[in-house]
Amino acid sequence: MHESDLLVVARARGGDTEAFRVLVERHSRYLFAVAHRLVGNVEDTQDVVQETWLKAHRQLAGFEARADVRTWLTRIAVNCAIDHIRGRRYRELAHDPLDLQQGPLSERAAVEGPTADRLLLGAEMQQRLASALTSLTALERAAFMLRHVEGLSIDEIGTALDLRTSATKHCIFRAVRKMRVALASFAGA
Amino acid sequence: MTDHQNPGHLADEDFVLDYYGELDAAERVRVRTHLAWCTDCQHADRDVRATLRLVDVTPAPEPSEDFERDMWTRIEPHVRVASARMRWTVRLRGWVAGRAVTWPRLAWGGGVSAAVVLSFFVGRSGSMGGSSPALSPSAVHVARERVLDAEVEDHFERSQRVLAEVTNLDASTPVVLTSDRDRAADLVAAGRVYRRTADALGETATSELLEDLERVLLDVANGSPQPTVAEIEALRNRIDQQDLVFRLRVVGAELRHKQGTGATPAY
Question: Would you say residue B52 has pLDDT above 80?
């Protein structure tokens, strides 16, 4: 019988390692999708998912029984991804401020292979979209995805990414502009 | 596609903010009114919306078939150690409840201490539960460090809250520090165990900060429950002079970063 997430969490809170393993098996793939939208490459996404689980385990005692487990995990994953992006941002700034404009994510884009879902959309458009997304800087991508996919307000994104409101808006505007350029022929179709 | 930035027309930014519902009422009226008659802007607006809709249908790449198993392998050493600690805490809670001992005090003064000691034991003995392969000595060390890092990070956060409350006291009005003194005393007890653990692991910087923190917390714990203006000022000065709150934040952030990027122990 399929045990509910809440019951599994209750067992995990009592120190049941196998219960926590059940959660990992149920939700890791979903968390991968959430984190990937924010950080943009597979290697970093795996690290973010790992950190999400470690943090979730530490925060089990604070989980409220009324909450939805997947929503709770999503929030942790988003926070972990933001921390990761912030860390990467500072590392990038320390290396060369221009890196943020040059789109360091593009260097790591090649690790993602095609899947059945992607093929459905048409190889060319998919390739162009992937290229557009990987041409975004880490901040542009995070700000855009938090707004577009996670539905955070610009003020919330600014707080999360430690940016002023105007800077947050410009990150999103630059992201949209780059994607308009890359997807012009498809958007008009 | 052309950049829609001509004078007299709406800007691309207007379309984006409108799409996301981020315009205030007046701005929305301005944008919608303009869009109602300007065909150039209608075209540009459709273009932006079409682009954003394309992103809506983009699936994330699929991780490998073994992703869940690999993820579990990465986190299992930590989870096993931490779960053992949780089991022990649950048992301790039951024991405390059965003897009507004040739980918060014991949780901090004894429970957490015992938890760290237990973590050490778990670290020494390798794996818990029998089904997991034994950890290598280096993995044990890493696991013990991780447990300590997580505990100390939490300890620093709690300590910051106590220090913040003390330093933000309004010295011009009478105050009572009873609960802060109790919390400080609990933190002193827990901090001493963490410091011993940090010393054993060779984490000198953490140990030194814990020592500095302990002295200030002792002042709070042993101070008057109704401190005078001069006493509050002296305590505040001491915290400021040692830059204690800032140091706690920095080391706490480093510990969080370390936990996020730390190497996974090898079997």
Answer: yes
Q: Is B62 a member of any domain?
A: no
Q: Which two tokens stand for residue A151?
A: 């539905």
Using CB atoms and an 8 Å cut-off, which of residues 118-147 of chain A contact chain B? 118, 121, 125-126, 129, 133, 147
Output the six-digit token pair for B41. 């802007």
Give the separation between CA B229 and CA B241, rounded to whole angstroms.
Answer: 18
Contact B83 A15 (CB under 8 A): yes
Q: What is the DSSP string of B194-263?
A: HHHHHHHHT-HHHHHHHHHHHHHHHHHHHS-SS--HHHHHHHHHHHHHTTHHHHHHHHHHHHHHHHHHPP
Q: B58–A121: do the CB atoms touch at under 8 Å?
A: yes
Do residues B32 and B88 share a domain? Answer: no
Q: What is the pLDDT of residues B176-203, one digit of tens each?
A: 666 777 788 888 888 888 888 888 888 8
Domain of B23, in residue numbers = 12-56
Residue B4 lies in a domain: no
In a domain, B266, yes or no: no
Residues B27 and B93 in one domain: no
Q: Cβ distance A52 to A77 under 8 Å? A: yes
- If contacts are CB pairs under 8 Å, which of residues 27-86 in chain B contact chain A? 47-48, 50-52, 54-63, 67-68, 71-72, 74-76, 78-80, 82-86
- Domains in chain A (CATH in brackets) are 1-95 (1.10.1740.10), 105-189 (1.10.10.10)
Q: What is the ipTM of this complex?
A: 0.70
Distance CA(A177)–CA(A189), nearest Å, equals: 18
Residues B150 and B239 in one domain: yes
How far is CA A73 from each of CA A9, A31, A36, A63, rounded to the nearest angstrom? 12, 8, 15, 10
Number of domains in chain B: 2
CA distance A142 to chain B (A): 14
Report the length, in residues, of chain B: 267
B31: in domain: yes
